[in-house]
Design a protein that fits this description.
By secondary structure, the chain is an alpha/beta fold. It has two domains: about 130 residues, Response regulator (Rossmann fold, 3-Layer(aba) Sandwich); about 35 residues, no CATH class. It contains seven helices and five strands.
Length: about 190
């Protein structure tokens, strides 16, 4: 059984082939594309996997690809790679939402670690969303139960609550009628 798919997008065939071979050894299924535009045209959603994309390519570049995926609400993590990286470019990629930014020549372990981090984050988010959806469905089938339980807890399961109702009003008036300088703010004492 193959692992998640890694979508390799690079305009250099030699880079695509080398990454395909290396990632296959680590158990990933690999699809390669020579441009981000070709990838976007072929994109089938939903997909489980990660994108490894060159930053500088003809047409849509890697950073623009990250922004476009976010705009389309496609939740694939993107690891950007570049042979001409500089700090502003790396910062722009991360701010756009890239999982990581790796310089060429690519260190295999560094790339696989970045891919695995991206996949782990996506699986974690999906699991949390599924749990939330399951809880929402469960509580949607129990109308009023939560509100009633909250009301009973807040008011001692139906027992009189200090400061509410006619009895509390009478107690305040009685304590204030004694002429005490504290007036209605005097604490109510239990009868002896």
């Amino acid at each position: 059984m193959s692992g998640p798919t890694v979508f390799v997008i690079d305009d250099q065939k030699a880079v695509r082939d080398a990454l395909r071979e290396m990632l296959s050894v680590f158990g990933f299924s690999v699809e390669t594309y020579e441009s981000a535009d070709n990838f976007l045209a072929a994109m089938r959603n939903p997909q489980v996997g990660c994108i490894v994309a060159d930053v500088r390519m003809p047409g849509t570049d890697g950073i623009t690809l990250v922004r476009e995926l976010a705009r389309r609400k496609i939740g694939l993590p993107v690891v950007l790679i570049s042979g001409h990286a500089d700090v502003p470019m790396a910062v722009a990629g991360i701010k756009a939402g890239a999982e990581d930014f790796i310089e060429k020549p690519i260190d295999d372990a560094q790339l696989v670690a970045a891919i695995n981090r991206g996949l782990a984050r996506i699986f974690s988010e999906q699991t949390m969303q599924q749990s939330f959806d399951a809880l929402s469905t469960q509580f949607a089938h129990q109308p009023g139960d939560c509100r009633q339980a909250h009301h009973q807890h807040a008011h001692g399961r139906g027992l009189p609550h200090a400061g509410h109702g006619e009895d509390a009003g009478r107690e305040r008036r009685r304590s204030g009628a004694s002429g005490d300088s504290l007036g209605p703010h005097r604490p109510v004492e239990a009868p002896s």
